[in-house]
Amino acid sequence: MTIKDAKQQILDSIRAYLIKDEFGEYKISIEHQRPCFLLGPPGIGKTAIMDQIAQETGVNLISYSMAHQTRESAMGLPVIVERNFVGADVKVSEYTMSEIIANIYYTMEQTHIREGILFLDEINCVSESLAPIMLQFLQYKIFGLHQIPPGWVIVTAGNPPQFNKSVNEFDIVTWDRFKKVECEADFLCWKEYGYYGGVHPAIIAYLELHPGHYYEIDATDRHNYKIITARAWEDLSEMIQLYEIDGMAVTLELIGQYLQDHDIAPMFYEFYCKFNELRQIYDPDSILDGNITQEAVDRAGKADTEEAIALLNLLMDGVTYTMRTTIQMEKMIRQIHPKLEDILIKINEGLSCRQIIAEHIMTTRKNLDMAVKARIISPSNKKIQHWIIHNLEAYMDKCTNEGRDNKQRCTIIIQNAFTNLLNGAKNVTSQSMTGLKNMFIFMEAAYGADSPVMRKLLEELTINCHTMDFIKKYGSDEFYRLIGKPAVEPTYNDMYELNLEDCLKFE
């Protein structure tokens, strides 16, 4: 199965294990909660989907690589204690709490979240000293004398033996303790994740043209390994984007550090250079703004497949960026609005504006820190919380310096600031809708409404979570016309009707 299907299997298992009865007890006892064993080649996203699962379930996530665990870190250290058995004092050996289980309790204290996932990676690479106690752990969830707390689910992962010489084959008794979930590399599945995570458009375009280059591991030649994984493409994407922001040159040497294949690395580098040339020739931002020239239309219409796919991804990248920003800004506004309402209410009650805003900043930071420690917050939502903190800090400074803690002046400052946020969101939304419309105008003029390139564009818009979220929310007559379906009523609601008027009560 694909990594996406594997994620759903594990997510469903965790949700089932956390179902409680009417007395608050887990319906499946901890002894019968078979750990999932995610088996798949390296670098396809096994660890990444665990972060996504934690974010979707809202429970803690703790990860350990079992290949690096010793018997002592898992079991604890032996100690001699005195006990009284049948009237006689005796000395017996016991174990201190396992580092792994102690970390579970520490995390619960830090996050105030009682449930969680213990993710044990490379489970089939445990050391010889640790192997004998793993069967007991898988069955009873016990290391030494200490059992993992109720509400904690175990998920394990590992690579097949052909990818890792350290793998120890499990016996039948051990396999009988697992829910085995096997997955394999799949570009189409990863592409959805690539859109979600903002992978560089040149990479998505290149892999569209060469899907067979998405994943390759060949260790037959000890002096010339070939290693290209999903993780390599994602890491390369992030590095390219940082290089571009800082104005540094992306070289073949840089690409070769991630794509460890002497044939594929130069091919991608050549494509990346051409991709940047096409960015200069077509100026996709100008097209999305409505500056469509006949010269660009004519060139696109005559372009070969490689150029057409590159152009499509250049335009997709532009609309995706503004649409993703629109959705994020809306979430931020909806979350900051009740905070500003509370601030204005308390200002009108005579409390210090600076003190009230400072309290909201501290609370937001504390909740963000807890979410980060629990690993239940996505990069997008983390960015939203940073936006909120940044805005609150700016309001606090402005109210201190200009409002001088005067109730009426501070109220006006905050009201104006919120209005500016709404106007900013309106502008980005308008830019997104205009960009989408102009992209359709250009592509239809260059290729035609029923062309393979247009069908490819519609397919990409459909699998891209950011563009589909935007279209569902704000609508697009052109999109529904081109896919040949009746327009769906947009789910857009009253965000732009939010205001702080009810809090403006001057004496």
From TrEMBL:
It comes from the Bacteria. Residues 36-178 form the ATPase dynein-related AAA domain. One of its GO terms (molecular function) is ATP binding. InterPro entries: ATPase_dyneun-rel_AAA (IPR011704), P-loop_NTPase (IPR027417). Pfam families: AAA_5. This is ATPase, AAA family. It comes from Ruminococcus albus 8.
